[in-house]
Amino acid sequence: MTSSDTPTPAAGTCDVIVIGGGHNGLTAATVLAKAGRSVLLLEAAETLGGATRPYTFHSGFRSPGLAHLLNRLDPEVEKALGLDLTRDAALTPTTVLAPGRPAVTLRGAYGETVKGVTPEEARAFAALRRKLMFQASVLGRFLRKAPPRLDGAHLSDLLTAGGAGLKMLSHGREEARDLLRMLLTNVADVADEFLTDDRLKALLACDATLGFRLGPRSPTSLIGLYYRLTGEIGGKRGGQIPASRVAQAFEAAAHTAGVTIRTGARVAAILTERGAVTGVRLADGTTLAATSVVSALHPRTTFLDLVSPAECDTGLVRALTHYRTDGVTARIDIALDRAPVFPGAPADAATGRIVVARSLGQVEEAFNAVKYGRASEEPALEITVPTLADPDLAPAGRHTLSILAQYAPYRPREGWGTEGPAFVSRVLSLLENVSPGIGATIIAAELLTPDAMEERFDLPGGHWHHGEMQPDQLLVNRPIHALSGYRTPIDGLTLAAAGSHPGGGISGLPGLLAARTLMAGSRP
Amino acid sequence: MTLTMRLRAQAHIETPRLETPFHPRLAALDRVNDWYNWAGYKAPHALDDTELEYFAIRSTASLFDLSPMVKYRIEGKDAERYLNRLTLRDVSRQKTGTVQYTAWCDDAGHVLDDGTLFRLAPDVFRLCCQDRHLPWLLDSAIGFDVDIREETEEIAGLALQGPTAFATLKAAGLGNVASLRPFQITTLPAPFGDVTISRTGFTADLGYELFVPSEHALALWDLIHAAGQAYGLRAIGYDALNRARIEAGFIVAGADFIGADIALRPGRERMPDEIGLDWLVDPAKPHFNGRRAILHARRTGALKHVLVGLEIEGNVPAEGAIVYHGRSREAGVVTAAIWSPTAKRNIALASLTRPFGTEITNDLWVEIYALRELSYQKMMKRAVIVPRPFVSLPRRTANPPGLF
Ligand SMILES: Cc1cc2nc3c(=O)[nH]c(=O)nc-3n(C[C@H](O)[C@H](O)[C@H](O)COP(=O)(O)OP(=O)(O)OC[C@H]3O[C@@H](n4cnc5c(N)ncnc54)[C@H](O)[C@@H]3O)c2cc1C
């Protein structure tokens, strides 16, 4: 990893090298190629997609990718890439199952209608939903463009902030006050303020914290829910559809745009000289020259592994070593010999997602464990049945079922070797509670812990947003201040993955905004 | 924990100021009992009369205890590369057995400290400075194969400065320093063990700095002190040294600039170019901390301050005075000032706000408030920017060194 390797010009030199073929890398590469740049994309794995990459977990059974749902794929990204993942898609329901209690089902975009609760509770939920949707629409204005810059106000930043302010005020001072009151609070207080039904509260608790190292009572945990609700599908804020064939769609777009793609091409170093990019070196030793490199990887991989520390300032390295990126969500892929049944749930519940959680308190207690390096005694579960969207994932008549289980520490004190089997059996017995008899139909179950995801998907910490999304790691501080806004202190090096604004999830926005920033020219 | 264990663990609070390895000798010579706190150590402002101590530096020889100076040992395969990234100058061009004056910055290009870097062996360095920086040095080591250790307590140091410094060393049996040129280091045997000697100093005079393991400190003192008796050697405190360093035009952290990690108020940090250290910045060498910010500031004209040497009419030192342009517009502040006995001029270092000191250099004034028996005397004195050092003595660099 020295800066003195002199890269040989790449065979058929390109304008830009994009590192990382996750959906953000593919987005950036496609946008750049469509704008006429010649783009070479380098992906370490044999297949593209990153966290959306399909994988086989048991002979004949495949997972469509780590992600369950599309709920924030940005319309501008779809348009820019010519995707049609969300067009005509019917939004799928969310069902909360708590053993011994009737199912609660949310339909439409995040519960336009709610079944299974009292009429008063449904009205209370509608009021809360309206408020959160409004607030998310104000906050969402900041997500579709590069983060504001602090080194001199830019007109567009002022317009965004001004626009958000006007929108808030146009809904009355009370709404503005409420947003400021709620913005940095925790989801538990908000749920308690508006709702009485434990199952709905548990759902909000899960949705606000899934993928974050926060419990529902942790300060700022409401941000996770806001973030979710800033996403839209088919023009519907809060809508969701299965994440099916996502990687394939992004890959096809990149091909069509003329991106040159090399898989199995792990980048071992980003070469720089006196503060400017000169190229990359692959794990096999070949070097490729480039004056523009887009790194669509975790920021820590980019700056602590690939760029030589000798080429960065100490403060930047120091800040990145403190960047919080320990994942807390495990995934369990299950092969079933028949379709799962969830008694009491609507017939189409499994086409959407099923959340298994009893109460807010349960989710909070589940979080306590992770603070002390243990996996939750009673984790909260989000379940999908991917074969309902894509039957090709399993042999005919068979099914796959996927569980995201929270909380599972990145590295439990006892080690996953010890904790893993017990954790899986706890998850399976929770599953058995809501789907009695399912245990007998299980052909195989594979646990993917955060550290296993790190290893298999090159995902540091196994964190699904490439780093926590609390205020100190958002906007002008995402991932850290010195690296915010895609540009980096290294000339010609641009960041473009989930660790950059606006953050994780399948949105394509970091990739799109990074490509636009790059095309807008270099830093003054 | 038992109470006795607790009390034992708190023993350090009984010695709020450490004593240096030379303390017994300093205390024995001390007549004025005027101590100050230097990086946690008890150090003398003066041992006797400051005038006499100053003139020992310029006329005979002076012995100054510099043990409290913070010292880090930096060694390992990547030591050179590490220091090249840490500091402003090109360490790859520093030869083994030499000392280089240098400085280091944070990401924003603000100076954290200045100091001297000793290259003791190809992979072994000693960094000497005013403030403590271990967390920064350790964080800077992420990704480097290098070992960093503070050795302030283990290494005792003496500065022997003045025209008869070489004669004193010769009399002490260390005459082999004769071949040492400025900024070179050598190790010579003494009766008690090896002494590492560099031809460096803070006085702009002929002089040396001597380092030994702390357990040999008193033996070193006795050797030099005895040998110096025939050459007018006098132990001195900081006040005398401070006069010599102002004449030399050297800056001091905490006085002429505030380390970026210590400054509390925004805008008090300084870039190298703002404290006269622009000559240390080497844009042609590989990347170093603050490079981007410094070059950016140079390119965009974002530098706000400049350090200048001033000659001020009259003979009243202008310490802490405000500098004006056209007698009315504030242009900066004096950071150090003395009447220089050697230059026979009233001199000062000042931090000016650009364009004063860069584009606008004429019509500068300082306002001196002199407290004269319950009443301030306010003087507006003309100041002229003059080159530093204020005093430059051929004997500082003469080879071989003069045997006065
Ligand atoms: C378990 C889990 C569940 C999730 N569920 C959802 C969900 O339901 N809905 C949702 O919207 N989001 C979900 N997410 C989040 C979402 O999947 C990610 O935030 C998103 O996919 C990140 O995309 P990316 O392109 O930024 O990075 P990644 O997808 O991580 O892509 C990075 C790519 O870089 C490659 N790479 C790494 N190192 C190198 C190297 N040295 N050289 C070359 N290539 C390299 C990797 O192989 C990978 O392909 C989930 C994440 C996880 C982990």
Question: Could you walk me through the main structural features you see in this protein, from its secondary elements to its overall organization?
Answer:
Chain A is of the alpha+beta class and 524 residues long. Chain A has 3 domains: 3-53 and 246-324 and 466-520, 3-Layer(bba) Sandwich (FAD/NAD(P)-binding domain), CATH 3.50.50; 69-84 and 325-457, Guanine Nucleotide Dissociation Inhibitor, domain 2 (2-Layer Sandwich), CATH 3.30.519; 112-231, no CATH class. Helix content of chain A is 33%, strand content 18%. Chain A has helices at 23-34, 75-81, 119-140, 155-170, 173-182, 187-194, 198-209, 222-230, 246-257, 299-306, 314-321, 360-371, 416-434, 450-457, 509-519; strands at residues 16-19, 39-42, 55-58, 61-63, 69-70, 94-97, 104-107, 113-115, 232-233, 236-237, 241-242, 260-262, 267-273, 276-282, 287-289, 293-295, 329-336, 353-356, 380-384, 399-406, 442-448, 493-495. An 8-stranded mixed β-sheet of chain A has the order 8-7-6-18-19-20-17-21, with helices on both faces. Chain A has a 5-stranded parallel β-sheet with strand order 12-2-1-16-22, covered by helices on one side. Chain A has a 3-stranded antiparallel β-sheet with strand order 13-14-15, with helices on one face. In chain A, strand 3 and strand 4 form a beta hairpin. In chain A, helix 3 (119-140) crosses helix 8 (222-230). The longest helix of chain A has 22 residues, at 119-140. Chain B has 404 residues and is an alpha+beta fold. Chain B folds into 3 domains: 3-69 and 154-248, Gyrase A, domain 2 (2-Layer Sandwich), CATH 3.30.1360.120; 70-150, 2-Layer Sandwich (Alpha-Beta Plaits), CATH 3.30.70.1400; 272-386, Elongation Factor Tu (Ef-tu), domain 3 (Beta Barrel). Chain B is 20% helix and 33% strand. Chain B contains 10 helices and 19 strands. Chain B has helices at 3-9, 23-29, 50-59, 79-86, 134-139, 165-171, 217-228, 238-248, 291-300, 394-397; strands spanning 34-38, 41-46, 61-65, 70-75, 98-105, 111-121, 124-129, 147-150, 155-161, 185-190, 193-198, 207-213, 233-235, 305-312, 322-325, 329-340, 345-353, 364-371, 376-386. In chain B, the strands form 4 sheets. A 6-stranded mixed β-sheet of chain B has the order 10-11-12-9-3-13, sandwiched between helices. In chain B, strand 16 (329-340) and strand 17 (345-353) form a beta hairpin. In chain B, helix 3 (50-59) crosses helix 8. The chains are: A alpha+beta (524), B alpha+beta (404). Bound molecules: flavin-adenine dinucleotide.
